[in-house]
Write a structure and sequence with these properties.
Blueprint: H1 18-31, H2 35-53, H3 61-72, H4 79-86
């Protein structure tokens, strides 16, 4: 009797319009990846986002009160963020590339 081997990969088949396949192929090529790798990574990333949106955060009532108190405090400016927001965008006049 042959030993059963646990399957490690499962095929997924999709029917897509030619324009969608062309877009996927172009993006995969720009990333230097195969269509399969590109689609798999994109699908897994999208699935992870959905799962993470559903993540439940549990904390004690004391912890929640502390959390809310911290959120209620006035914001403290971060100098690097202030400089970044004030810096002209690359498409705006006055932009100078930093090296």
């Amino acid at each position: 009797m042959a030993a059963t081997v646990e399957r490690k990969e499962y095929p997924i088949s999709m029917r897509l319009p030619e324009a969608d396949v062309a877009m996927i192929d172009r993006a995969a090529s720009l990333r230097g990846r195969s269509r399969t790798d590109f689609v798999r990574d994109a699908a897994v990333r999208a699935a992870e986002e959905v799962v993470m949106e559903q993540a439940l955060i549990r904390m004690s009532s004391e912890g929640f009160a502390d959390f809310m108190e911290i959120l209620s405090r006035p914001a403290i400016p971060v100098p690097e963020m202030v400089e970044l927001v004030r810096r002209p965008a690359p498409w705006e006049p006055g932009y100078v590339a930093k090296r």
